[in-house]
Amino acid sequence: MSTPAIDCEHVTHRYGDFTAIDDLSLTVGVGETMGLLGPNGAGKTTLVRLLTTLTPVQHGQVGIFGLDAGRRTMDIRQNLGYVPQQLSIESALTGRQNVDLFARLYDVPRRERRARVDDALEAMQLLDVADRLAKTYSGGMVRRLELAQALVNRP
Ligand SMILES: Nc1ncnc2c1ncn2[C@@H]1O[C@H](COP(=O)(O)OP(=O)(O)O)[C@@H](O)[C@H]1O
Ligand SMILES: [Mg+2]
Q1: Which 3 state secondary structure label does DSSP give 13?
Q2: 43 in ligand 1 pocket by Cβ < 6 Å?
Q3: From atom 2 of ligand 1, which residue's Cα is the shortest distance away?
Q4: 140 CB near ligand 1 (under 6 Å)
Q5: Which of 9, 21, 107, 149 qualifies as a cystine partner to 61, CB 3.0-4.6 A?
Q6: What is the pLDDT of residue 136?
Q7: DSSP 65-129
């Protein structure tokens, strides 16, 4: 069996004496799509923060493509695309500048940057509006721009 994309073993996470995640184990295979559903306060965001290495793992094991989220934080971040709940675009920049910013943050090599930014914009069908300020985009276009940001590092 190949290494899973996500492998959580007995993950428990507490805020003080409040237990937000209680002994969670789950596996998501390569190429598999998983939706995590639950009411407000169920612990979804806490889990996503553990998977993306934004919050340190307290108890249990979190593996991302075989990398331990407790140790290999930068390697994992380099290989993740993440569209957060809160908007992450800069409205005073153009669509292209917004994606280019993420390419720089992810250390996409300088000579590849232009092509990668264009590829991500193209994939989200935003190439023809790429040089407009993001504040002129509709809500749906903003969401697609965020997807382009999350794809530019080829996660
Ligand atoms: N930084 C924090 N400090 C204390 N309690 C928190 C913190 N973050 C989340 N919680 C609590 O942990 C529980 C799970 O929250 P969260 O992971 O945001 O759930 P969801 O995303 O499913 O709505 C909630 O009861 C929330 O109040
Ligand atoms: Mg949440």
Answers
A1: strand
A2: yes
A3: 15
A4: no
A5: 9
A6: 98
A7: TTEETTT-HHHHHHT-----SS----TTSBHHHHHHHHHHHTT--HHHHHHHHHHHHHHTT-GGG
